[in-house]
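no rush on this but wanted to send it before i forget. what follows is a protein written twice so to speak, once as letters and once as structure tokens for the fold. mainly i need to know what kind of three dimensional shape the backbone takes. thanks a lot i owe you, the record is right below.
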Amino acid sequence: MIFIESETSSHEQHVILHAGLALKGGSHPDIDPSMVLERPKVIHNRQTGKFIMWMHIDTADYELARTGVAVSDSPVGPFRYQGSFRPHGQQSRDFTVYAVSQTPLQIFTLVLALAWQ
């Protein structure tokens, strides 16, 4: 769910409005209620005018480790899920996203190397 917070100038109060469901679950196996969808981030694509949601997609045992992508005409949705992938073929868990107007989108994902003894 998306909530929008705004300040009222006259009373210095915060107003929180319910903006609806950003991404409807169940429309794809990745976003089924049995799956884990965490840490969504939304950025604006100036070239297309679309808003892109990046998120962590995983199974309950955290073995999938993928990055999911959804697209919307509005920053609050509704978003249309596009699918998931592993950036550079690597597991994706914690990540951050940023965009600079002169360069392509950059995705940084934390890759953990585990040494089993």
